[in-house]
Write a structure and sequence with these properties.
Layout (H helix, E strand, L loop, with lengths): L7 H25 L4 H30 L1
Helix pairs in contact: 1-2
Keywords: Membrane, Transmembrane, Transmembrane helix
Length: about 70
């Protein structure tokens, strides 16, 4: 891994937090539903943030396995 990049442990933590955030978001919408356009907007932005963070962490973890 790069000397200045995050360590494997930090990437695993970031992945776990991202997946946990997506799970909590899905549970909240599953229990309460989408109440309005603002709720939908917040959900989409949060899902995009957590999803992008999870995908980025997975890519970096897989890349470090090959080296």
């Amino acid at each position: 891994m790069s000397r200045f990049g995050p360590s494997r442990g930090e990437l695993k933590l970031r992945l776990a937090i991202s997946l946990g955030g997506i799970a909590l978001l899905a549970a909240a919408y599953g229990m309460n539903g989408i109440s309005g356009i603002a709720s939908l907007e917040i959900g989409l932005i949060a899902a995009a943030f957590f999803g992008a963070s999870a995908i980025s962490s997975l890519i970096k973890l897989r890349r470090s396995d090959k080296q």
